[in-house]
């Protein structure tokens, strides 16, 4: 059965489209008898208002495009939940596009959002995004956009990122306070700003102590962590292990178990959303970064830009 339109209702009842529209909205100029006829017909034929057409007339789709670097069990679900909580409350819908860590797909996703006439875009960049030239079209089309979590140095778009200095220094302090002397620090993709920021602030604290040594490795995935540690832990031992994210922590945990490292005898500290460590090892210490809060802040920032008519800094 095809979807019944407001025009179909008007033809059935032999009245104008505008009369049907006003009757459905309980307009005072329409009699109660006509309102009753229209609403009865709408219920009988399962009439559903066309939100897209309504919003199009208002020059607003009430839809947001969310672009993420990849679908992951780490962190992304809580960010999406935070974004959803804000947008749903404000009457917005959103769709999720994954770039699969591909710059070309990220470019395609941006075009999809523009062609879908979204009111705004939330985007977390891929590890291969080196500049924002492909986002220029967003600026040209005056589509508000906010970059969150994974970004690169730039001055064109609003950003929502964590306080990496606070998190990295807090993690370093835990090793210092515990008297650790040799630490293995596992960071994510070397090309990402978040990775470099956390590494720099972490090492600044550790290197201030001459009696402490820190080995740094970069890993793009949990599997990459396991591959590297499978070799490293055969010829080196550490009294402290640092993971800059839930993903690196997952790889670290698997490696420690495989190499039969007694976690009670070493210090493991991770910057994490806080959920994963509960299912790994209760002795792990956590520096909590809240994905839900990041999602809510990013959504609220975007809605502010939409309502204020600004699309970039």
Instruction: Indicate the structural class.
Output: alpha/beta
Inertia-based shape: elongated
Strand segment tally: 10
Helix and strand pattern: HHHHEHEHEHEEHEHEHEHEEH
Poorly predicted ranges: none
Can you describe this structure?
This is LacI family DNA-binding transcriptional regulator. Keywords: DNA-binding, Transcription, Transcription regulation. Pfam families: LacI, Peripla_BP_4. InterPro entries: HTH_LacI, Lambda_DNA-bd_dom_sf, Peripla_BP_I, SBP_2_dom. GO terms for molecular function: DNA-binding transcription factor activity; transcription cis-regulatory region binding. The protein has 313 residues and is an alpha/beta fold. The chain has twelve helices and ten strands. The strands form two sheets. Strands 2-1-3-4-5 form a five-stranded parallel sheet, with helices on both faces. A five-stranded parallel sheet has the order 7-6-8-9-10. Helix 5 links the parallel strand 1 and strand 2. Helix 1 crosses helix 3. The longest helix has 18 residues. It is elongated, with a radius of gyration of 26 Å. It starts with 5 loop residues before the first helix and ends in a 5-residue tail after the last helix.
SSE topology sketch:
Blueprint: H1 6-13, H2 17-24, H3 32-44, H4 51-57, E1 63-68, H5 76-89, E2 93-98, H6 103-115, E3 120-123, H7 136-140, E4 145-148, E5 158-160, H8 164-178, E6 182-187, H9 193-206, E7 213-218, H10 222-235, E8 240-243, H11 246-258, E9 267-272, E10 285-288, H12 291-308
Parallel strand pairs: 1-2, 1-3, 3-4, 4-5, 6-7, 6-8, 8-9, 9-10
């Amino acid at each position: 059965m095809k979807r019944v339109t407001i025009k179909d209702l008007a033809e059935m009842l032999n009245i104008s489209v505008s009369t049907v529209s006003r009757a459905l909205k309980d307009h005072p100029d329409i009699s109660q008898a006509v309102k009753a006829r229209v609403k009865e017909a709408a219920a009988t034929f399962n009439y559903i208002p066309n939100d897209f057409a309504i919003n199009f007339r208002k020059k607003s789709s009430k839809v947001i495009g969310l672009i993420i670097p990849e679908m992951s069990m780490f962190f992304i679900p809580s960010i999406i939940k935070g974004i959803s909580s804000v947008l749903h409350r404000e009457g917005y819908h959103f769709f999720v596009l994954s770039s699969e860590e591909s710059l070309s797909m990220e470019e395609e996703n941006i075009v999809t959002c523009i062609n879908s006439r979204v009111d705004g875009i939330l985007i977390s960049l891929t590890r291969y995004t080196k500049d924002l030239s492909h986002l220029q079209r967003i600026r040209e089309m005056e589509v508000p956009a906010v970059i969150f979590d994974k970004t690169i140095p730039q001055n064109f778009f609003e950003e929502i990122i964590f306080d990496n200095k606070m998190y990295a220094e807090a993690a370093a302090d835990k090793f210092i306070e515990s008297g650790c002397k040799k630490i293995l620090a596992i960071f994510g993709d070397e090309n990402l700003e978040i990775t470099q920021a956390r590494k720099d602030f972490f090492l600044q604290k550790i290197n201030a102590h001459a009696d402490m040594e820190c080995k740094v490795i970069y890993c793009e995935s949990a599997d990459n962590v396991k591959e590297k540690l499978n070799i490293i832990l055969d010829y080196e031992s550490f009294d402290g292990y640092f993971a800059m994210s839930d993903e690196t922590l997952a790889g670290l945990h698997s490696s420690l178990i495989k190499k039969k490292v007694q976690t009670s005898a070493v210090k493991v500290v991770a910057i994490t959303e806080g959920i994963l460590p509960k299912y790994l090892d209760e002795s792990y210490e956590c520096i909590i970064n809240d994905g839900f809060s990041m999602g809510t802040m990013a959504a609220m920032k975007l809605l502010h830009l939409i309502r204020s008519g600004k699309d970039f800094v």
